[in-house]
Amino acid sequence: MTSSDRMIVVTGGTSGLGYECAKDLARDPRNTVVITGRDASRTRDMAARIGAHGMALDLSSRASVGAFVTELVAADRPPLFGLVCNAGVQFTRRTLTADGMEATFATNHLGHLGLITDLLDHFTAPARIILVSSGTHDPDQFTGMPHPLDDTARDLAYPPSPSESAQRDARRRYTTSKLANVRTAYYLARELAPRGITVNAFDPGLMPGTGLARDASAFQRIAWRTIARALVVLPSVRTPRASGADLAWLVAAPDREGMTGQYLVRRAPARSSAASCDEPAQQALYRDSVELLAELDARAGR
Ligand SMILES: NC(=O)c1ccc[n+]([C@@H]2O[C@H](COP(=O)([O-])OP(=O)(O)OC[C@H]3O[C@@H](n4cnc5c(N)ncnc54)[C@H](OP(=O)(O)O)[C@@H]3O)[C@@H](O)[C@H]2O)c1
Q1: pTM over cut 0.85
Q2: What pLDDT digit, counting tens, does each position of 270-301 carry?
Q3: How far is the first Cα of the chain from the last one, in angstroms, to the nearest whole number?
Q4: How far is it, in rounded angstroms, from Cα 48 to Cα 69?
Q5: 263 lies in some domain
Q6: Which residues line ligand 1 (CB under 6 A)?
Q7: Distance 14 CA to ligand 1 centre (A)
Q8: Is residue 299 part of a domain?
């Protein structure tokens, strides 16, 4: 690993899509790969299996993001080339973080945005950021998931009590966070172009069998592992292995240099939802999210 010339960080690299992506990246001796997970010892074990480094990171905690960045930049590793914002959660009921925020928004969107902003000065251009989104952000794709909300970032962080079933509300929080991922990718692509950092969103397709359903009922988890896996013949259904290979290729392939502001399906640009392309909404989400992060930092005396 000492002969590698660039570092690529994959959040949520302990299972599913992130693990498969990191495994592919770590096969290339030019890459030093860092995977993250909430439990330090488990993350180190998973990293050791694929020749990567494992570090603890809980994206739902601003303090954990800060500690991770401090440790990452202090380590003697090659320049930061890539960041794959892959970690994600989907709950079945309203869940709050220790900071009191709705946990899907805090983890899938705000945690990653805080990570990106904290790492910005540590990238060495040309560099790449990919945010893992989902086709469920787009109502036109008829995924069966509730349509995303268009609320302000503050209302998404501190929402009122659910006005629909707890499960439906939690699923809507998920699709909303995935819309936030695409909006953030488009906004940052424009902002970071002058720094030589590209930013894209990636839709891995439906990948039955990953840990994403860990919060679901026993019956739903069995269905996720068995019935849903049988759907793999459909074009929008993929294995974590196949999508992980696509994601690794997109973050590392030399001929993808300069590609930015795209919503990527498999290895090519595709159309994202109309709401994701709304530039004022992208700007407002970014502005309000940065404000929320500043409030968390102030509360923690950072
Ligand atoms: N599976 C699908 O059908 C599907 C479809 C479209 C998009 N996606 C997206 O693909 C990405 C990967 O999902 P997956 O299906 O591979 O799920 P997964 O197997 O559950 O992997 C999720 C990863 O996120 C990490 N994680 C969970 N909570 C975290 C937190 N608070 N802070 C930091 N890391 C956390 C987990 O690590 P630890 O548990 O070790 O902390 C794990 O490595 C997600 O962004 C998801 O939205 C999935």
Answers
A1: yes
A2: 999 999 999 999 999 999 999 999 999 999 88
A3: 34
A4: 21
A5: yes
A6: 11-18, 37-39, 57-60, 86-89, 107, 132, 134, 204, 206-207, 210-212, 240
A7: 9
A8: no
